[in-house]
Amino acid sequence: MKKQNLFFSLLLLVFLGITIGPNLVNNFQQQGKRLEKLNATEIISSKTISFPPQGTHVVLFWATWCAPCKLEMKRLKSAIKDGDLPQERVWAYNPFENEDVIKNFITKNSYPFHFITTKPKLEESLNIRATPTYLWINEDKTIYRMTTGISFINLLWLEYFLI
Fold first, then answer.
1. Domain range spanning residue 77?
2. What is the CATH number of the domain that holds 43?
3. Which of 32, 34, 110, 144 could form a disulfide with 138 if both were Cys (CB 3.0 to 4.6 A apart)?
4. In this predicted model, what pLDDT tens digit does every residue of 58-73 receive, in sequence order?
5. What is the distance between the alpha carbons of residues 52 and 59, in angstroms, rounded to a whole number?
6. DSSP 65
């Protein structure tokens, strides 16, 4: 029985290393990278803006089919509603689905943050392949941090970072 447990534990570690490992390495490689100005479009209003704006900001890379993303979005919504996070500094970016799917999702679920697309595509320059991924942007428009997956302390760190 102990050999089976050891085998399955090792198998799980190998699986996690293969699936999560590249994202973690990429996240560390992107830290400190300066972001160039991009033309962004707010999905609902179709308003064109320059991204990233001045100040500290966080971008959540998400997808409508991603259950952990939906959880993170609900947590962000609640933190904004409670006044713990500034609404104007929270952005959502879905690089995996077409704009009609995203608009439909946003219409059904009102979230108090900005939903954008960019040109050139932000996910390509950062090699984003997994959701949910947070991109933390410093005042000098460099990447302070990138995190992938759910973290229950992320909101605490975001409160400290954005306020």
1. 2-162
2. 3.40.30.10
3. 144
4. 999 999 999 999 999 9
5. 10
6. T
Rounded distance between C-alpha atoms, residue 40 and residue 95, angstroms: 13
Tokens of 157: 């760190």
Which residue do the tokens 């993170």 mark? 72
Distance CA 57, CA 90 (A): 6
Domain count for the chain: 1
Residues 6+ apart with CB under 8 A from 137: 35, 52, 56, 57, 58, 59, 143, 144
Q: Helix, strand, or coil here: 142?
A: strand
- For residue 39, what are the CA distances in angstroms to 26, 51, 99, 134, 163? 24, 6, 16, 20, 25
Contact 61/133 with Cβ under 8 angstroms?
yes
Residues in the chain: 163
Q: Which residues does residue 118 pair with via DSSP β-bridges, in sequence order? A: 40
Q: Which pTM value belongs to this model?
A: 0.85
